Amino acid sequence: MYIDTHAHLNFDPFIRDPQPYIDRALQAGVTRMIVPAADLASSEKAVALAERYEGVFAAVGVHPQDAAAVPDNYLSLLASMLDHPKVCAVGEVGLDYYRRYAPRDVQMRVFREQAELARSLGYPLIIHNREADDDTFSLLEDLAYFNVQFHCFGGDAAYARNVIERGALVSFTGVITFSQKAREVARTLPPEKLMIETDCPWMAPVPYRGKPNEPAYVVEVAAAFAEIFGRSVEDIAALTTATAERFFRLSQT
Ligand code: NI
Question: Cα-Cα-Cα-Cα dihedral of 151, 157, 163, 168, to 10°?
């Protein structure tokens, strides 16, 4: 059994008719999927999907892309969504200096406020970090809150070790099926600190490059880990599932 810890079923093309994608995921052994949000509307969609599908769990939050557009009451709206029993995390939140979605100070404020919300209510945090290693790290260090998953990890081994030492977990997408650099980084890390995700509809793994990604393909990420760590894919499935169950506080199957 696998858990896809980052599947945007609340986005196109999935949201129009999620059923076939969920069916294919189940057939592939991907029994649970975490659906992270990017803004308030996609947070609500994630919650609705979690209500409708047994294996779907939601995260709610505002991505740096939408940091400049948050209404004044967004934190209380997120807090009330977090009350839902199938909402398991705050995310995805963070900093993106590659795309410069919003001014850095706005991104920092919205990231900090949501990290504080997660900390105060005791929820794990899903982090989007692109070209913002130092600010991401210092903000978390400042809050002393490392109950976090670095999603779609793209940093170097030293950074990964640094955040793992403080209690963070690191998640890889299908990039690990074709990027030598990502494989070299993963190889240096303790496998029990890692999670798998698709980040679908983006980041399709080999052999699906150039096609839309979907939750069923998270199996390819597990297969890449199996190769990197010299373990069976069943071992990796069990290990990454247990890690995700602990982090997202899902019941054990
Ligand atoms: Ni994402």
Answer: 40
How confident is the model at residue 6, as a pLDDT?
98
Residue 72, pLDDT score: 96
Expressed in angstroms and rounded, the spacing between residue 177 Cα and the centre of ligand 1 is 18
List the one residue out of 179, 110, 119 whose CA is nearest residue 144. 119
Provide the strand spans (E) within the chain.
2-4, 30-35, 56-60, 87-96, 125-130, 148-150, 169-172, 194-196
CA of 6 to the centre of ligand 1 (A): 6
The CA 10 to ligand 1 mean position distance, Å, reads 11
Q: Give the Å distance between the CA of 110 and the centre of ligand 1.
A: 17
Cα-Cα-Cα-Cα dihedral of 203, 17, 78, 134, to 10°? Answer: 0
For range 92-115, the mean pLDDT: 95
- pTM to 2 decimal places: 0.97
Centre of ligand 1 from the C-alpha of residue 199, in Å: 5
Between the CA of 239 and the centroid of ligand 1 the distance, in Å, is 22
CA of 234 to the centre of ligand 1 (A): 26
Q: What dihedral angle (degrees, nearest 10) is formed by the CA atoms of 68, 72, 73, 74?
A: 10
Domain annotation for the chain: domains and CATH numbers = 2-252 (3.20.20.140)
184 Cα–ligand 1 center, Å = 23
Averaged pLDDT of the chain: 97
> pLDDT category, 101, cuts 50, 70, 90?
confident
Cα of 187 vs centre of ligand 1, distance in Å, is: 23
